[in-house]
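During the reporting period the student researcher (J.K.) took over the structure-prediction task from the postdoctoral fellow and processed the backlog of single-chain submissions. One of the processed entries is reproduced below for the supervisory committee.
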Amino acid sequence: MRLPQPHESDSALALEPRDRALRCGRGHSFDVARQGYVSLLTGASTKMTGDTAAMLDARATFQSGGHFAPIADAVSRAVTAAQRPDGSVLEVGAGTGYYLAAVLDAAPSTVGIGLDVAKPAVRRCARTHPRAAAVLADAWLGVPIRDGAVNRVLSVFAPRNPREIARILADDGRFVVATPTERHLGELIGPLDMVRVDPDKDRRLDNAMSGHFETVEHTLVEYPMTLDRSDVANVVGMGPSAHHATATDARLAQLSETVEVTASVVVASYRPAA
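J.K. obtained the following structure tokens:
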């Protein structure tokens, strides 16, 4: 790992573990918190709003029900395709670490890092898998990883910084991105006043990747989910709609006991641009 300060040499900024801390050649020390993560946030303020503990609780409960297991399987296949047996994977915006753990289960010799800007998230990531480390950092201010040091990078339903990902990714690496389509959770968006998927999302993703990455493969993962009201409440509470949905309890009460809802996600794999 390295701190994201481009004017200092890599050798001075290399971090080594020592006595429950990471230390660099300039004498800086970053303690490993008792929850198991290390904070590498710089002093600059972040423009990102991290998930709250309540949002992560809702997401973990929903994920534990297996509703997004097909998405996790597709992500794991994309990440582990042609993966070196001793490779590494970084999840940016790792949240609960659910997808990172799925990848590590599918690749027994791979090690992982979950990076997130929210303390409740990295606390969860630190205990999500025995081969996963957790780092508190803002990817938009700089990913604290050496150039070309990571074999695979993963971003699921999370903001991403293509320029920084291109810097840290190995020449033969892959960047796997999972994004919702306009049909994702479509049956709930109107009745529950949820945040809609931007119809321009694909174009904006392509523009952001342009010059940094080339597309390897796109896979549509789409299937029906049968959700009860508690599942639906967790869906609302685990994402951006938690900040925007209005009168959710009253709206939930108007739903049937169970609702069939569409999961619709594109899992895209990219390689560094030539």
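The committee noted the following: The mean pLDDT is 83.
J.K. will present the remaining backlog at the next meeting.
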